[in-house]
Structure prediction request, 199 residues.
Amino acid sequence: MITKETNTLRESIVAASKELFSRFGFKKTAVDDIAKKARVAKGTIYNYFRSKEEIYQDLLQREGKNLILKMREAMRDQKTPQLKLREMIIAKIKYYKELSLLYEINRQRVEDILPFVKKEREEIARQELNVIKEFLEEGVSSSVFQVMNIPATAKAIVTAINGLEIGWTLEMELEGATTEIDDLLQILFRGLERHIGGG
Prediction:
């Protein structure tokens, strides 16, 4: 039976783990360090988690859910598909630094990422791709967009965003990132070609 005390203890372990993983990384953080930081016996941790990997996986899943939730919340009140995409990207950039583990693993080279971490990152990317597909489908059904291949277009948009998000998050303030996002979306929505006449 899960009691309030049990839940509090689990959350204390999770909070201590997140702080240590964020500061020292997965490999340099030991279960002993987590126990000390959470002020619990090492054995207590194993009452809630089978391993350090399971704690890290739990944290990644939480961050992924939180990211997708923030993106969906930002889109919810927007009237057009274009504004939905804009606000979704801004929300992702805005909250990205708070998601310290996702932020860190997305800065690593693919070959340095542990297999279980890679799996969680791929799941989060799949959910993000689904959000983009939904927005594209809405745009097509309301005759705002003309998209021939929604999955391929969604993948291209996600790739573009992911390729730029570290720079937007790390190298500039939100205002500067927003200007670059608007420039990118202008190209995406209107294309690079100059339309002459009524075309």
In short: The chain has a mean pLDDT of 84. Residues 100 and 188 are 29 Å apart (CA to CA). Residues 1-49 form a domain with the Arc Repressor Mutant, subunit A fold (CATH 1.10.10.60). The radius of gyration is 20 Å.
